[in-house]
Amino acid sequence: MFSNSSKYALTAVIHLASQTDEAHKKMVKDLSLYTDIPKAYLAKLLQQLSKHQVISATKGPKGGYYLTEENRKLPVYRIIEVIDGTHRLESCVLGLEDCNAENPCPLHDLVNPSKAILLNTLKHMSIEELAGKLNKNDGFSIPGT
């Protein structure tokens, strides 16, 4: 359901949410080491997220990536929207163009209720909330957090 790019972006943003603020930024090379995401790939994802104001960045010797309070309040859905667009999450799981309630694919009725719950959660859960859930260590961990 999520592309590798979205998975990497989610991992990086969650790490930034739990480890950074304006006074404590992370450089790409450090974030790459902590998250085990290839440096060049991560740099492109972070540039994209920064360009769309999902994360913040400053240039220079004391520069790096970080999250502001405003960034932290954004819905998790925004990360996926910036990286992959919405089509992947909201389209037919079998990739059929004509799949809808009136003309459902074989999996439509099985998958759509769960997909609707996931989309609702992603649209209403903030980055800060997601990072908080993972920081509680409820059996999940993100490399480097």
Automatic annotation (TrEMBL):
TM segment ranges: none
One example GO MF annotation: DNA-binding transcription factor activity
InterPro entries in alphabetical order: Tscrpt_reg_Rrf2, WH-like_DNA-bd_sf, WH_DNA-bd_sf
A cellular component term, taken from the record's GO annotations: cytosol
Pfam families attached to this UniProt entry: Rrf2
Top-rank lineage group of the source organism: Bacteria
Protein's name according to its UniProt entry: Rrf2 family transcriptional regulator
Naturally occurring in which organism (per UniProt): Muriicola jejuensis
